[in-house]
Amino acid sequence: IYFSTTTTLAPNVAKSQPEVRKAALDLLTKNKQVLGMEKPESQFDLIESTTDEIGMTHAKMQQYLNGVPIY
Length: 71
Prior knowledge:
- This protein is 31% helix and 32% strand.
- The chain has 3 helices and 4 strands, in the order E-H-H-H-E-E-E.
- Strands 1, 2, 3 and 4 form a 4-stranded antiparallel beta sheet that branches.
């Protein structure tokens, strides 16, 4: 799952991994019914986050089902 945190975190500011993870999980939690999931916080782990040249932070998350990665 990819998303930009520009709307949830201040742009052009370095974001820590915990901040990015929280922003990503907040987005998934707010949309969990639409996405058909029960507990995003237990289904996703942050793999990496990057900030591009215009200051947008991107989070790459891995989804798991019963401990098995979903691709």
